[in-house]
Amino acid sequence: xxxxxLSTNSLTKKYKHQTAVSDISINVCQGExxxxxxxxxxxxxxxxxxxxxxxxxxxxxxxFMGYSGKERRKILSRIGLLIEAPSLYTxxxxxxxxxxxxxxxGINKKGYIEEILETVGLCEARNKKVxxxxxxxxxxxxxxxxxxxxxxxxxxxxPINGLDPQGIVEIRNTLLDLNKKKNITxxxxxxxxxxxxxxxxxxxxxxNGELIKELSHTELDIACSEHIELEMPxxxxxLPVLDRLGFTHYQxxxxxxxxxxxxxxxxxxxxxxxxxCEIPITSISVASKTFENYFLEMIGGVYND
Length: 305
Ligand code: ADP
Prior knowledge:
Layout: E1 4-15, E2 18-24, E3 27-29, E4 33-37, H1 44-51, E5 59-64, E6 67-68, E7 79-82, H2 94-105, H3 112-119, H4 135-147, E8 153-157, H5 165-182, E9 185-190, H6 193-196, E10 202-207, E11 210-216, H7 217-224, E12 227-231, H8 235-244, E13 250-254, E14 257-260, H9 267-276, E15 283-287, H10 291-299
Parallel strand pairs: 4-9, 4-10, 7-8, 8-9
Antiparallel strand pairs: 1-2, 1-3, 1-5, 5-6, 10-11, 12-14, 12-15, 13-14
Helix pairs in contact: 4-5
The protein binds adenosine-5'-diphosphate (ADP).
């Protein structure tokens, strides 16, 4: 059993004309990398801000390390966050930015900054001014800043937005490393499920401020794996036939489609049996889904970012 680190209970944030986050309940366990997936404007940043104590929920509550309500303020320093662009002094070096943060947080340990720089792979560039850093390096320094004080939970809002492929790989490796070696729990948001799938152990899908689905990496793999796609006017009629043929691992996905996740070589046989029972089908084929298509189908729309 994994220990629960954070949970939100019916968390809601309303602005004057808009509900940015509506009734969201999630559970994040110790050691997890929880991926928040949603289009721009879905409510990811607002949710992270409430968890990080940067904005106040309209209703609902948050429990973190057993603390909730006003009590939670006491342990907000256990959360490291990188939300929107990192606040860095660009005229200073990475080392000095970190030094300043250490002074502000009251940390004065020998070798502390070096270790953090090492963790995010910025040792060599430590004495360069931040203004000379690439976007990816700035993001990694942003993560380094969030790590000051050894947080138990790291909140990262779209940390790979705008990065080149190399930068993306570096951030990904940094996060996996942090999670594995320091057992830091991470909540990371992105509008690209494919990318999140490379680091996350669990996913929460957010659309229009609502949590529309939560699933594990294994469940995502299964949902996107190869399957027989059976299209027909009335799927319910086919179910007794599938049962009789011994299929157990299938799903009616909408009013005209069934997905069958086993015996992929049997599609001809299925078609024949259905035809014997005079049950019409429109098509039968073997298909698989990309993570991105799964995401798009789930939120029921076209990409409009
Ligand atoms: P995401 O991070 O998924 O892109 P956000 O949490 O930034 O989504 O925004 C969710 C919705 O809430 C958006 O429609 C946004 O316009 C609105 N919103 C966010 N912050 C504010 C604010 N301070 N005032 C009014 N509306 C806001």
